[in-house]
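hey so i finally got around to running the thing on that chain from the lab meeting. sorry it took forever, my laptop kept dying and i had to restart like 3 times. anyway pasting the input first so we r on the same page abt which one it is
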Amino acid sequence: MTLVAALLGWMFDGLEMGLFPLVAGPALGELLGTTDRTEVTRWISIITAGFLVGAATGGVLFGWLGDRIGRVRAMTLSVLTYAIFSGACGLATEAWQVAAFRFIASLGMGGEWSLGVALVMEVWPDKSRAWLAAGIGAAANAGYLLIAGLSLVLTAIASSLHSGLLTVGIGEETVNWLTGNSGWRILMLFGTMPAFLTFLIRLFVPESGKWQHENQKGSTTHWQTRDLLGVLIGAGAGAGLIAFWAVPDIHMLVRVAGTLVMVVIITGGYLYPIVRYVQRSNAAEGRSDASLGKIVRTLMLAASLSGVALLGTWGSIQLAPTWANELAAGKPTAKAYTQMCTAGGACIGCVLAALSGDWLGRRITYMILCVGSIAAIFGLFQTTETYGVQLLVMAFIAGTITAAFYGWLPLYLPELFTTKVRATGQGFGFNFGRILAAIGVLQLPVVMTNLKVGYPGACTAMSAVYLIGMVLIWFAPETKGKPLPA
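ok and heres what got predicted. didnt touch it at all, straight out
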């Protein structure tokens, strides 16, 4: 039941993340009252960056809750959060409302990832870890696949749906509002579906025995609510970071300096509750704080490895459906088919990456994925010029390789932290990488405008981040064959 609930949670997590790329064009076109590509692209970057900052915040916030009140209760709250506010996007009347709702929804999405990974890895034996990581990554990408399929179904039955809603007595103005512009509102309203999963989690999913052991020892009481002020300050700095790039006519030097300051504040704010917990725990157990430096270094290394993978996908492959739609001159199914190809490949890639990490070792697998991702992104964006079979095949290959990191990360990150800080630690490690990805995503309109390149040039340039990953991984410990830290 633990595995079923977690897999469903990750699948719906992927479904929610895959919603916006599909509806961004028609939704923002309607809400902004314009089809100007520059303005729509600017808002896509703002909303995506807000989502990434929110997910980073949620990873720490709900990870803290998971270590404080238990994995299961915190996971219930995280799923409910992203379900309600993803669906609320379908009721938005302004672009800023979509940004706000996506931000709140992303708090739950970021939390669900870290909580589900911690729970499953603690409940199942060490020998199953690779297969569990494979399932985690594949389930999330199955959500991308599912929402793309729902989009195709919605397109196929649009006229029937319109008349059906009229038949049941809904007013014509409301029906036109719901079904207009490719029915993006109805698709967003599908985001409320995961709310039903919370009943399954609360009724049938057992709590982690390892967490219960820590709770009985009293170590969970060292997590203090007042420490969350640091997370709040970090989230505020994240909003400031977005503002530096979203507001027009700010000098580039001011933007760069402001970004550096905001990143420092975000880092300190998100680390604060973890640092304070370790200090209290050490004081209660009569230990020195000598281990604190090692924990902070591990957290930043985990964040950097995650950031490479996240920036690589959010700055390139996530934009493949939008690019395909542009090449297809607005053909309504182009986005959905492209997303189905990237997500289908990702499901396979996550399984292969997790198993390879178990067979070849964690570090060499990460290195192979970095090299392969550079080649795959180049192949997709630089060798295809029209929407068609070749683009879809290359999208499948690129999805297989670039998204394979999401099978590797749930295998590796839990192995870096002990039980008492695992949910918060890997929540910070994976989700802080989204802050780095947000910075990269905010550069896309800048690169496209200043260098006068389209999606192919900008997305290919973003793939250079994998070069950093190829160096970083050799500073990370090899954990193959080792038990999960107690």
